[in-house]
Amino acid sequence: MDSSLTDAHEEVKPHSTIRFFIKRFDIMKCFQEAGVKKDKGYALKDVVIFLISLVFTNKTYYALMKICNFNKPFDKDVVYRFFDNPWSNWRLCLLKIAGLLINNHLYGLTRPERARALVLDDSFFNRDRSWKVELLAWVKNHTTDVTQKGFRFLTLGWTDGVSFIPLSFSLLSSSKKEFRICEANPDIPPDSPGAARRKEAVTSAIDVSLAMVDEAMKHVRCFKYVLFDSWFPCSKLILGIKDRGRHVICMLKENKTLYGYQGRAYKFQDLFSVVAKTKGNKDDILASAIVYYFGLRVQIVFVRNRRKDAKRKWLALLSTDLSISPEEVIRIYGMRWDIEVFFKMSKSFLKLAKEFRVRSYDSMIAHTSIVCIRHMLLSYESRFNQDNRAYGGIFYECCDEVAEISLNQSFKLIMDLLVKTLHETPFLSDEEANQILERFITNIPYVLRNSLLRRTA
């Protein structure tokens, strides 16, 4: 029986899609160059494949270890020790993988003149049932407008309008000590990547955003714009990105900033009143103008707000690129929606903040990085299969692949055991044993019979 189990295990090579993705982009080399490694025990590749494929089993790590206790790949502490390593530079690992995917594969799929952009946004990383999580803080959830326990999931990604690839992220706590529930672990080596991430977690989101753009530019150069929503526009971020040789397209919100137009300074609301007089209000583009923003000439496009409950009937987009039309400003800004799909996909399908209920900040960074790699896998499958499936459809097909392989393997083990038992029974001849097997195969369900015939063909 032991021999039969071993032979079947070696014959079946599960998760072909995941293995192909890892081999195609040399992901293990990226892990090693970023210091993400294992010093002893199980091979790093086996642990990585297990972590990426775990979500497609529709079980959490705890549930899988408990249910599959008789056949688990390794003890639970293997993964927790792997995650809880402050010397693993997960950000560098993500950037290396994303750089290979974008520069060597995705960039050549579109025309050189097509607009490509980095998208910057944040979402709520929920740990509302926790109290002893490292750097846990009270953070405002902008979706519900309620302050909850968790982190700001600040993310920077690349998009060409078709595929979205997450480049880097930061789990931001609060820069104010009174809002932090737990502090950082004081025993972390000060020169480790883990210590740098903890220091970053209590830094201003604008400073972190500029640092993330700087790091991304070392690995991905094929983009012209940086897009973000109305939560981020400030002179430091806009001027900082412009100084780095890239253009900004973002949505503006009402504040005390003054805009220079025709020799005068106007507030946000007053500027629209002046500019809109020169254009009718029948189109979705209500008006546009070239203004001065902290000494920088920018284009502002006023667009009709279609929300019926909106207090203001227009929205304003800012573009530092004066060479494109207002229509093009709107089209390029529309690419920002790709990051919203990423957030939805990560939380609803890829189990962000749900799969591992860890307390260590390093472990949360590691788990979130694995979620980003899973999204890269689904983006690659969606793009290179040249079909119209949504991410959700691809996710469920990967689940079916993992489940089908598990069924084939289990059924093959049962059949091997049955054949061996029948032929070892002393009062049965080989002919009688074969007749019993034929009757058994005839009476099993159609789906299982076809699965068995495919495996034995």
Describe the structure.
With 457 residues, this protein is of the alpha+beta class. The chain folds into 2 domains: 15-224 and 333-392, no CATH class; 225-320, no CATH class. It has 17 helices and 11 strands. The protein has helices at 2-11, 16-24, 27-33, 44-54, 61-67, 76-83, 90-106, 193-201, 205-217, 235-243, 268-275, 326-333, 337-348, 361-384, 391-424, 430-443, 446-456; strands at residues 117-126, 137-141, 146-159, 164-172, 225-228, 247-251, 259-261, 264-266, 285-293, 296-304, 314-319. Helix 3 packs antiparallel against helix 7, helix 7 (90-106) packs parallel to helix 14 and helix 9 (205-217) packs parallel to helix 10 (235-243).
Question: What are the main properties of this structure?
Answer:
457 residues; two-stranded antiparallel sheet; 17 helices; nine-stranded mixed β-sheet; elongated; 2 domains; alpha+beta; disordered N terminus; 46% helix
Q: Can you count the beta strands?
A: 11
Give the CA-based shape: elongated
Taken in chain order, the helices and strands follow as: HHHHHHHEEEEHHEHEEEHEEEHHHHHH
Number of domains: 2
| Mean pLDDT over the full residue set | 86
Report the biggest beta sheet as strand number plus sense, adding barrel if it closes.
9 strands, mixed
Radius of gyration using CA atoms only = 27 Å
Unreliable parts: 1-14
Q: How many alpha or pi helices?
A: 17
Separation, N- and C-terminal Cα atoms: 22 Å
Determine the fraction of residues in helical runs and give it as a percent range.
Answer: 40-55%
